[in-house]
């Protein structure tokens, strides 16, 4: 069986890895740029299963379990130092309490913490502002470049062909099947096609008449000079401030700061938002006074490939028998990488996803209107 995967980001590489591990001998991944050059190498490397939909909680809990297994198997790096969702308003705590009850149904051990325990979890937080928090001890972060490079090398070792600088310009259908992808280097034939091209999946699938509701929403993380101070949680989220400003400290000691900002969709990847620095820093300084003296050193920008219900689009693309999609991760595709690989491989090889709840996330839901809401999207 020949499989062509379009997109060498975290999703495409995990799909290719899983197919190769399951015995598919001829797997090719093409990318219009270099591997990871889409959203993947622009992400913060944070992970959690403390979401608000059963689909996200179940799938991401499984994905984190797999990341931890791969930490041992492939020598990846991951730290589970927890997410601290900080409340400034007492009424927010009731919402957090309900959310913890929801998480416990799925074995995710989030807990409500009072202001005293918040100080134990992160003594540098401003006690005059914080009334309590929700803590997710299983959440964490990972160094993305290190882990992505290790995954890339493993995929190559498994015999997958990864072909950079090869853009798919259109898919070629015949009846109920796709027979080839036309690329900037000529046509590529295959028996099955997986489109894992982030927001560009929309344009690729439009060439076979399939409408995929993904919007590219710009995101802007700011990176400070490195500091010796170490934040204890992997991520601190200012949940009661619009745009949920958040901060983590990366493996080099730099603080990484971000906030959901008003922006035009499809704004150029080369644009910058230096004007946003005060809007991000002001609430975070109030929360964490140690940020008062930090210098922002650099900045990058990337897109969340956002769907209307903030969940990925997985699985078969009707009416085609051999076309699959894995896109629209809405800011969560890095943490979902391992489960994405297994889901798409099982759809291709077994005709169904290995975790049943993933059936709720096919393209079909936009036709039937059965959307699956996620309320806890950060940044
Ligand atoms: C600022 C920021 C912070 C984030 N933080 C987190 C986080 O902390 N945790 C988390 O889990 N997620 C996070 N994300 C989201 C995460 O980065 C994405 O969900 C994930 O990387 C999606 O991976 P992907 O492989 O599906 O897509 P991408 O990484 O975008 O890969 C798609 C690939 O397809 C290629 N491509 C596009 N069009 C074509 C074509 N026509 N032909 C061939 N190739 C094509 C692109 O070049 C690209 O390499 C963040 C995203 C951003 C922008």
The CATH topology assignment of the largest domain is FAD/NAD(P)-binding domain
Which regions have little confidence, pLDDT < 50, spanning 5+ residues? none
Average pLDDT for all residues? 95
Shape: globular
Mind telling me the CATH superfamily name of the largest domain?
Answer: FAD/NAD(P)-binding domain
Which oligomerization state do the chains in this entry correspond to? Answer: single chain
The secondary structure category is alpha+beta
Describe the protein.
The structure is a single chain. A hairpin with a 2-residue loop joins strand 9 (168-174) and strand 10. This protein has 379 residues and is an alpha+beta fold. The mean pLDDT is 95. It has helices spanning 10-21, 54-74, 90-104, 115-121, 144-157, 201-206, 277-287, 333-350, 364-368, and strands at 2-6, 26-30, 46-47, 83-87, 111-114, 132-136, 140-141, 161-163, 168-174, 177-183, 186-189, 192-195, 215-219, 222-226, 235-238, 246-249, 254-258, 296-299, 302-306, 313-316, 323-327. It is built from nine helices and 21 strands. The two termini are 40 Å apart. It has an eight-stranded mixed beta sheet with strand order 5-6-4-15-16-17-14-18, sandwiched between helices. It has two domains: 2-45 and 145-215 and 307-368, FAD/NAD(P)-binding domain, CATH 3.50.50; 83-137 and 221-300, D-Amino Acid Oxidase, subunit A, domain 2 (D-Amino Acid Oxidase, Chain A, domain 2, 2-Layer Sandwich). The longest helix is centred in the first third of the chain and has 21 residues, at 54-74. It is globular and about 65 Å long. The structure holds flavin-adenine dinucleotide (FAD). Residues 6-12, 30-33, 37-40, 42-47, 167-168, 196-198, 200, 204, 219, 221, 302-304, 327, 329, 331-335 line the site of flavin-adenine dinucleotide. The site of flavin-adenine dinucleotide has 40 residues, from helix 1, strand 3, strand 19 and helix 8.
């Amino acid at each position: 069986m020949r499989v062509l995967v379009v997109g060498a980001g975290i999703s495409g590489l995990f799909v290719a890895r899983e197919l190769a591990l399951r015995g598919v001998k001829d797997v090719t991944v093409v990318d219009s740029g270099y591997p990871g050059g889409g959203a993947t190498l622009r992400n913060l490397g944070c992970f959690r299963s403390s979401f608000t939909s059963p689909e996200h909680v179940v799938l991401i809990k499984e994905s984190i379990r797999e990341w931890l297994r791969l930490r041992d198997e492939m020598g990846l790096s991951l730290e589970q130092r927890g997410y601290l969702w900080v409340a400034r308003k007492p009424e927010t705590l009731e919402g957090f309490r309900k959310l913890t009850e929801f998480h416990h149904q799925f074995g995710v051990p989030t807990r409500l913490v009072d202001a005293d325990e918040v100080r134990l979890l992160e003594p540098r937080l401003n006690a005059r502002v914080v009334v309590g928090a929700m803590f997710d001890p299983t959440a964490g972060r990972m160094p993305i470049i290190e882990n992505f490079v290790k995954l890339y090398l493993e995929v190559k070792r498994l015999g997958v062909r990864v072909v950079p600088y090869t853009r798919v310009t259109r898919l070629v259908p015949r009846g109920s099947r796709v027979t080839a992808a036309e690329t900037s280097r000529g046509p590529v034939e295959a028996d099955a096609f997986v489109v894992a091209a982030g927001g560009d999946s929309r344009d690729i699938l439009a060439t076979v008449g399939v409408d995929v509701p993904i919007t590219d929403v710009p995101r802007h993380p700011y990176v400070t000079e490195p500091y010796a101070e170490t934040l204890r949680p992997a991520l601190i989220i200012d949940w009661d401030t619009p745009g949920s400003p958040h901060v983590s400290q990366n493996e080099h000691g730099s603080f990484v700061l971000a906030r959901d900002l008003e922006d035009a969709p499809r704004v150029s990847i080369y644009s910058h938002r230096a004007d946003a620095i005060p809007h991000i820093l002001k609430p975070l300084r109030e929360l964490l006074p140690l940020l008062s003296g930090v210098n922002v050193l650099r900045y990058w920008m990337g897109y969340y490939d956002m769907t209307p219900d903030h969940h990925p689009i997985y699985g078969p693309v009707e009416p085609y028998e051999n076309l699959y999609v894995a896109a629209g991760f809405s800011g969560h595709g890095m943490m979902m990488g391992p489960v994405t690989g297994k889901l798409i491989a099982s759809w291709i090889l077994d005709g169904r996803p290995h975790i049943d709840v993933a059936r709720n996330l096919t393209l079909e839901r936009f036709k039937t209107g059965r959307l699956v809401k996620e309320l806890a999207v950060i940044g």
